[in-house]
Queue: 3 jobs
Job 1
Amino acid sequence: MEFVHKPIMLTECLSALKIDPAGIYVDGTVGGAGHSKEIAKRLDYKKGGRLLCLDRDPDAVKTASERLKDFPQASVHHSNFSEIVCLLDSLNIDKIDGMLLDLGVSSFQLDCAERGFSFRNDAPLDMRMSKTGKSAKDVVNEYSEAELSKMIFTYSEERFARKIAAAIVRERQKKPIETTLELAEIIKGAMPAAAKREKNPCKRTFQAIRIEVNGELEHLKNALDDIFSKLNSGARLAIITFHSLEDRIVKQKYKEWCQGCTCPKDFPICVCGNTPKGKMTPNKAIEPNAEEQEQNPRSKCARLRVFEKL
């Protein structure tokens, strides 16, 4: 199956990065190289322009390497974006001029049944982006009822989290839960009739399990300050999020970086010494335009936030 990943808000991302042909940039989630290929086209290898393309998914690394083989300015690395400091240090790169993170699951991962991300096709419960470590099967069959309930509600705000967790535990006592459709039927069976009639009643629970399996929020939280430390003055960080949990983390961190003086308003002069480390540009999230949302329904929940280091 071909690795397909339609680049979300491609024009907006390229504009957000303000690409300098001689600059050094990082695509922390290269996927099918949709964004990376266009960034690479705008870099001049002879002037020192470089693009580092990272991904934790070995399938993405293989595909991106092939698609970028004609761009000497681009190199592909099997690495998580949370390892950015170690990677740059290993390459003797002190600072970068911009970085892009597209935090969405690629179309390939969703549509490739055997990867176990989707509730629409029957496949072994997996969901591992890196193809290593604990799988969705491990989470579903080994977590306690309380852990499952907390995970499902925290990572998806699923209002029937307790019922779903109880149903999972009840069914796995009969036999291990091994496939995506088995799990999907258990989830739907735990829901009231009205909830079952929703378009994708299993979506929230599958999202929660995927986030847990891949440690997505932890990687994001841990990476942001490290990324900031590697940005040149004037460099930009562009992040595309796909659900409120990710977006909240990014928004709060950007706000923290942009915060200036924290002294009480009645102080005649500043004594805290805090100054803004950068600015959001623009000040709010960018959304896909109507045409893109129509052509690529998966883009509808995407939000792009851009930060520029001062």
Job 2
Amino acid sequence: MSEAKGSAIGGIAYVVAAAVMWSLVPVSIKKVSAAMDAYTITWVRFAGVSLLLLIYAHLSGDLKTLRRRDIGLIVAAGAGIGLNYVLYTCGIRLTTASAGNVVVNFEAIWLVVLGRLWLKERLGGVKLVGAIITFAGVFAAIWNGEALAALIKSDYFIGNMLIVACSMPWAVYGIGQKILVERGLATSAALACIFGVAALFTLPVMLVGYDVKLPLDLSAWIWLFVLVVMATLAAYVFMAKGFEKLDASTAGVITCILPILTIFAARIFLDEVVSYTVILGAGLVVAGMIIIGNAEAKSHKARQCNSS
């Protein structure tokens, strides 16, 4: 049990680390957006990460793990994450940030659903209890009067629906990444190709909305580096490592900690207020993750015993 539990804890740690990196995204975009439009920022993230990982994968020999059978899945995952970013960028402009934080959690729900349908994963029993507690913690932290009003207000309906729609393509990326990991494709090679496809997918949108004020000042360059290297490259590498150790559905539930981390990041970098409900929600999320981690360890142990 200790080996399985260690694997589960390690997987959760990787996903939480990815969420910590992702929590820097809103702050970074806010800092860079004065000099660069949102669609160009998105394209730079995809193209920059793809180039860096392609260089690494070539030098390390990881590209040799790529097989022809992987191409279709890579295209689906790349198109999924590209569509996710485009729809989210469109949607967040038509709703409030707090409402966006609520509906973006549909990504975790879709990952659970697709994990069940595509990978035959189960989220029952104790693991389901942990998922419910985790979701409750997220909603305790971000479900306020503004978010509720924005969800049901007709002015924000299109924006909310776009963000809901963007959640399923991201789940397609997640399932694709999970399958590629199980096939033995190196993380660097998989992500280099997936982000390359995403860069090609979002290129037309970037060209239409291109609005960059050159030259960029030092602050913009620093935050662009944070966005590309830390909040994108490191985040997705950590997430891929999490998929290696966890079921896709479990990894999806753990990502629900992201809105809470984003709130704390905004407090640190943007001096926004953290309420008591956020602290309560964070506590529930941690409790839920502990329950899920123990259930995941038992599930891995059972699979190991059955295979032997």
Job 3
Amino acid sequence: MKVTIERAELLRSLSHVQSVVERRNTIPILSNVLIEAGDGGHVRIMATDLDLQVVDNLRANAVDSAGAITVSAHLLFDIARKLPDGSEVSLETGDNRMVIKAGRSRFTLPTLPRDDFPVIVEGDLPTSFELAAKTLAELIDRTRFAISTEETRYYLNGIFFHVADEDGGVLKAAATDGHRLARFTLARPAGAEGMPDVIVPRKAVAELRKLLEEAMEGNVQIDLSPSKIRFALGGEGGVVLTSKLIDGTFPDYSRVIPTGNDKLLKVDPKSLFAGVDRVATIATEKTRAVKMGLDADKVTLTVTSPDNGNAVEEVSSQYGSEAMEIGFNAGYLKDILQQLNKDTVELHFADAGAPTLIREDESSPALYVLMPMRV
């Protein structure tokens, strides 16, 4: 194989795929990217970790001889990063080696044969629909912070997608770690009717969000079955991410969304975030709780730490029910407040021991539930 590629093109393509490759691999071939050069100047670059696969397509300046080979993903990426701007990169293979030339630089890297490279077999993906890239990015941003990192509850290690018939048909995305729940709802896209419930793993979500950064203007084609999902960005010749889905049952999270919380607090999320952030400065691992005291026109935030003393701050708010106190994990509360962009946010309370519902307003697509802490 011998190809010549613009350094910027090669770097952009490698940046899309190389982060899938784990730094530590017991299987040598999984440390590599597959590079396939075809006639007509078409080059395909692929990386996988056996659960997740990303394929990118790019145009070469010249393909002198077609072929396919695998080479260290992180090494090639680091080399491409350090080559001079505007340079042309020549990749040539032979004798289990790849020679990389650009300007006065020359590198020789070991290669492994293309036939050893594993490819995820997608099989039949019967459900197919499109979403605007901006919408998909917002959906991920509003929910992924609540994904659980507890490996024992593997079925919570991703975002749960499912459709429902309410309001003329909706697509919902939810994530929870047992302490907080994030849900995002949007109109059901054409083609998503009868879609199976799926859990997209945390790593696939993170890689997809990175790829969306460069493809915000277009649509994303989503194809899925009960075991696999494929996201195609940038149309023909774009990037394709294929992932296995988490094989498990997501809990019926609708049961924890409170419907009868009658105490309503309205507050500016930025002011509340800043207040919680300040008083939490003295919190330690043992005392992550921030106590909220609710009164007619203010919220009193208190953190007490046996080692570091205590901190109090008042934030102005609107509240029309009887005074009450409730405690929350400061970090979890801040994570949710960071998602809210409007000038006021609604917090619906029942009592100090019941989950709290948080949203911008009734019509907002994002909804959050936060479990209280004893304080």
